[in-house]
């Protein structure tokens, strides 16, 4: 699915900027609640501190050695929103086709307005392929997304992440040492992990969500596995079950559980693997009977959504249409009318021909932007507390101006490079995903898409 080029029309009746809303809440100019008043500060205030920063992932434990961003020069920290916007526009105009700027759906509005393409992580990585002559790809997203762009772009192209502290807490929940150890422990139970049984199936096929590091994608590629997105997870699991008795799915337990459940896999055959416990905390008998072994990981944005929020939306809005992301917990997905990827949510709203009330369970920047783009509908985030993705929010126009003006001056700042030893098997896992094409969905069959 290609990335989309979104032109946002200013609508004074609904400001698409989450940052403006947070500033108004913190200053007392607007009634509302945010999960952390520090969100009103510039992200450079947190660059020297350990942790993911304020927002949805602020309670998650960041791994030792996670990338840190160096100090942003004062001129960018003290510039006004209007000044930064003009500096970004001027730098882009000077660079022309030498640079392409990619913006994830969850980015703050002040960054998205400068993006040449807006989309999800894989759409944007593919968008980069459409510009093989660009010298630099500036990826306004998080670290694993920039790595994926580097995997798929030409070697001479520089992939740039404006703020190195923009990681992903979910991706960090499965590190390579833990995954290698889990594989060894599973081999204790299943035997030779490459040996095929009488039906030609190996004991386990590893499947990693796109939201994982290049190192994890490389592990999957080396062990006969595959990458998935939230859009094609079912197709990928079908591919894996054609090759293995079981699937080890990481890092997001909820996407794995929701997808496998929709395919008819019983919950009792989906044990959780806790990397901090021997054999993931399960018995040998449980693992023998398993079909999908779920890694103990999650997205802190989507874990905020609850059945209570859905019930409240239904009580207050007659006929509300509830759509949530499949990274939400199972009970939330079950209670919603539909679940689907960020691109699915966007298209569902675009396809609604009659004025509709939508309650959306995904990151608030996308929800607020959709509400501004579609004033004929009533669109709101299920979570009443304004709590953006901590790490996406680390990308700020100040950093974007800094890296673009660096390119104008002939300096590449914050380049993301994946070493060849990791890149080659990671590309193999991505190529397997690209070859596993999902069937075309019936036009009218929108319910519970994934």
Q: Would you mind describing this structure in some detail?
A:
With 450 residues, this protein is of the alpha/beta class. Helices cover 38% and strands 12% of the residues. The protein has helices at 18-27, 74-77, 81-95, 109-112, 121-129, 143-152, 169-172, 176-190, 214-222, 233-241, 253-262, 284-289, 307-316, 330-335, 342-351, 364-373, 397-408, 420-435; strands at 99-104, 117-119, 136-140, 158-160, 202-209, 226-228, 244-250, 272-273, 292-295, 321-324, 338-339, 357-361, 378-381. The chain has a five-stranded parallel β-sheet, sandwiched between helices. The chain has a four-stranded parallel β-sheet with strand order 2-1-3-4, with helices on both faces. Helix 5 (121-129) packs parallel to helix 6 and helix 9 packs across helix 18. The longest helix is centred in the C-terminal third of the chain and has 16 residues, at 420-435.
